[in-house]
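Request: Mind sharing a record?
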Amino acid sequence: MAENGTDCDQRRIRMSKEQHNGNFTDSSMLSERKRREREERLNIVLWKKPLVTLQYFCLETLINLKEWTIKLWRRRGLLVCVLLALAVLTALYYVQGAHQQYVRYMEKKFFWCAYWVGLGILSSVGLGTGLHTFLLYLGPHIASVTLAAYECNSVNFPEPPYPDQIICPEEETTEGSISLWAIISKVRLEACMWGAGTAIGELPPYFMARAARLSGAEPDDEEYQEFEEMLEHAETAQDFASRAKLAVQNLVQKVGFFGILACASIPNPLFDLAGITCGHFLVPFWTFFGATLIGKAVIKMHIQKLFVIITFSKHIVEQMVALIGAIPSIGPSLQKPFQEYLEAQRIKLHHKSDSAVPQGENWLSWIFEKLVIVMVCYFILSIINSMAQSYAKRLQQKMYSEEKTK
């Protein structure tokens, strides 16, 4: 009976929204209009409508700057405190004294941590796509430290941020003395900072859903609309994707902190849904963010670190290169560049700091560099397209509101 009463209330709410200003809009016509508008927005991309896309991107940027300026002005007291703190730190940075050694140390640590936190935020926010910074930056960094540790039999190379090249220490070390735990400890700071950045990047869906629920207004985000439609048709969902989303939603809603922790601790492409669920059901901020931070920056990061370190340990890499050579016909030709690359890395690790770095470029490193450039360019293009589509959505909503007031 209670469920039937809730369904009736939801129908009344929907009907009251449709009858606003005396105009009754057929739901099928409304959904068809939304579908057409969404298709129109998706066509606003640089490779189809470059001039319109760039114009909308610039206008959306100006609107966002205006909104941020208004928000900063409303919090001008906090802004003044931040500016005063920055002024004090600037004075400490430039005034000479015995404190300069601590200032330089903190400066190096701060920028190193900020670098990885920023990459983590880019990975999970992405404005529609996300830059895969683990594959492009953190994974290769852990792999290079792992290869260096096994080659040098030590992790006593300089603390992060490293020089252009990691150089083996000059002291003699015992063969096979390096341990898995030593490598994990060496890359723990940057890995945890990256994981913390990914946790911060999960906050926008949470705040969006929470604000929509508290305000009682119609949600403006398509993912949130999809979430509400999923809740309405929960019992009739048949396809695997819908059932997986419902499983995540039920786990987070019923288990709470530990459900969020479980979703955040494993590679989970549906975690945005967990943030929307927590915001919709008004889960406390620190419950959501605390579980997300622990899951992503501690548990998940150690799992990923272990995977990369084990994959790039010396004996496994040598076995992989040997297996490549065993491929019929093309094996030896494929094996050669890998062997040359590994040999070049060993030479770089053992060159003295005052000697010239060995020159020469391997096609594997060349391909990776070009891949990074392509991924970053695509990420920038996705930001431009996403912001242009956001402005198009503003125009469509403005047109719809004007039609309702006529």
